[in-house]
Amino acid sequence: MSSEQVIKSSMVVYAFDSLINRLNGQPSPPIPADFPTEPYPLFVTWKTSSNGYLRGCIGCFADLELGSGIQEYALTAALKDSRFPPVQMKEVTGLSCTVSLLTNFEDCSNAYDWNLQNHGIKIRFNSNGRNYSGTYLPQVATEQGWNQ
């Protein structure tokens, strides 16, 4: 099943509810009944609504149950992404959220073996004995004006 078939607006609502409840010191919201039961790797991205600036993006490549996974990574991306200060309650109404479910992983045969519209990029390399990695979701290439 492709991620387009399972993405639901309730996933984004659940991410917002999870963040708002945490910031207000309230219990976690109940997991919506319409969430699929299949586990998926996922990322949660927070951006400012006014200008689209990234405010946090963290996820996981392991298959996760969607309720606990969305909640965990909504909070981690908003509150623990080391690139940004933690989101504060006064910012929440000015944020947008994207939940990305990752599917159909495939290896590339070369640096140009990917499609701008459909593929994300996961990079790993070693430089001077240090390991580095980066993940770029499919929408990043077009948002940043990349080409191959």
UniProtKB/TrEMBL annotation:
InterPro entries: AMMECR1, AMMECR1_dom_sf, AMMECR1_domain, AMMECR1_N
Residues covered by the AMMECR1 domain: 1-148
NCBIfam families found in the cross-reference section: TIGR00296 family protein (TIGR00296)
Name this protein carries in UniProt: AMMECR1 domain-containing protein
